[in-house]
Amino acid sequence: MSWLTLANDPLLSGDVGWTVVLFVIVKTLIAFGLLLVGVILMIWFERKLISDFQNRVGPNKAGPWGLLQTLADGLKLIMKEDLIPDKADRRVFILAPFLSAVPAFVVFSVIPIGGAFDAEHGGVLHAFGHDTYMQLADPPPGVLLILALSSIAIYGVMLAGWASGSKYPLLGAVRGTAQMVSYEAALGLSIVTVVMLAGSLSTHEIVASQAGAGYSLFGAIPIPRWNIIATGFVPFVVFLIAATAELNRPPFDLVEAEQELVGGFHTEYSSFRFALFYLAEFMNTITMSAIIVTLFFGGPAGPVLFGWGWLSGLIWFSLKLFVFLFMFVWVRATLPRFRYDQLMNIGWKVMIPLALAWVMLLGAINIARDEDWNLPAVVIGAFLALVAGWVILTGAVDMARRRRSAELTEEALN
Length: 414
Fold this sequence. Notes:
The chain is mostly helical. The chain has 14 helices and 4 strands. It folds into 2 domains: 2-367, no CATH class; 374-414. The strands form 2 sheets. It has a two-stranded antiparallel ribbon with strand order 1-2. Strands 3-4 form a two-stranded antiparallel sheet.
């Protein structure tokens, strides 16, 4: 309860009585129910959409348009025999699926999903005599909580492969962990640019800073104050690519390269525990899409629809979320799988340097704006310095590679 009292939610600003506790419990059940139903619909949506891309019929027997197919698959998995290998570490083997599924739900709890973000309301919903945010919790270090929990999910992958007592899941876990750790750095650096602009780690404050129209095109067309525009588009691209790799989704699904690793880190899992990994994959897709919408596209902030009030925020959030869910499925159905060396090269040699350089560029712009320096000169100078650094670094790497190649050739000839 001491952690909750530090939250920014007005529901917890005063005395915390039984009414407030009951309100929090109801919000928790609603958030969990929405996410669980969203996962069920996401699985159906992805299967139907990919079937349309591939010109074939998707699920259409269980329920209208196959809507109940996901429930049927879930019941089938639960009814299967639960197997634990003889050489497995039983405690860790049982714990690992929860380390993948639980962080996805906890991350979703700090995402604002509705409310009217304007000067009058500020995203606050008045219900049953209480003021509250349309999110389960709004801790001051909300962004840090997202990064910490995404790191905990890596343990679920690693421990699942290690505890199985088989070399094939272990190889899949090592490969998946290296991939997720590599892109965690680029993911964090791209979020730094958003935090620099918002001046807060609270997800609610980040959304509030993007509310309204801050720009205008040709002096007449209003442009929203979304961070994708304010940060210069590059951090969003870095975050999107890094998030795809974090989720182990195609074209970066090297954790489950069937021709090499049998079935990845969860090869030895069955029944309910395998269902947890399956659930976590799609739950993380929804959660990561919600994070993208929150950080770069204003979350539920948008024009208040006539007659909808606080519900307009939920509508805007759902529409933005749907766009990114569609995009993830589209990418899955379109792009072939990358080679592992290509994946790691993109992460370490492109994503991390680019994200770090952009943080430095935005930092220079902010300092120039605060100190009233010549902003165009600072931008041009900082950009040229970054380009020069990039050229020198890539030249040094290329020279080292050629020298090593020449040494290997000489050794082979001798």
